[in-house]
């Protein structure tokens, strides 16, 4: 019988033991992602400062839905993952797959995937901490579980990217093979917000490249 495991039940420890994952201090793909440049326009900077002021005033009293609707959602919308019909940002979509005979399933808070009206192949998985619903939850573990499924569905050589958020603190993650790495925390209530936005823009660059139609030569 196939075993089943919900994303919400996953922790980093449980995933490491069940799937032989290894957390490493440095993963080249994570380093490259965090350091790659993606210029911010003055208009983007002004919008970020606007949403940052709202976050700073409210982050300690918002529940997770309020945080997503008033801050996280607008930040992803500002990146404009809906610019192309080849991919989009999807939220709370049913998502499952088999990894080593285990069916992993759930509804990630967000994912960036190919497809326009429904997700097809995911590249980036996002999880926000539901403090009052799951005080013992592990948002990084839940994001990593979704990333494992994304890795199985991709069947590609490139890494899988992700992020977990607790309040104003963002951690970015990369999964490559059975190794994964977590970034240091980026704080959205200070200058770290500009890094957060830049890193998300780099994800968009990656996905645009991966979903671009192949260039055919005259002989083809």
Question: How would you describe what is shown here?
Answer:
This protein is of the alpha/beta class. The protein has one domain (3-210): tt1808, chain A. Helices cover 38% and strands 24% of the residues. The strands form two sheets. Strands 2, 3, 6, 7, 8, 9, 10 and 11 form an eight-stranded mixed sheet that branches. A hairpin with a 2-residue loop joins β9 and β10 (179-182). α1 packs parallel to α5 and α3 (42-58) runs antiparallel to α4. 34% of the residues are buried.
* Strand segment count: 11
Computed over alpha carbons, the radius of gyration is: 17 Å
* Mean pLDDT across every amino acid position: 91
Q: What about the largest sheet?
A: 8 strands, mixed
CATH topology: tt1808, chain A
Q: What's the helix count?
A: 6
Outline the low-pLDDT stretches: none
Estimate the helix proportion, in percent.
25-40%
CATH C-level category: Alpha Beta
Could you tell me the strand content as a percent range?
15-25%
| H/E element order | EHEHHHEEEEEHEEEEH
The domain tally reads: 1
User: Tell me, what's the shape?
Assistant: globular
| Computed structural class | alpha/beta
- Termini separation comes to 46 Å
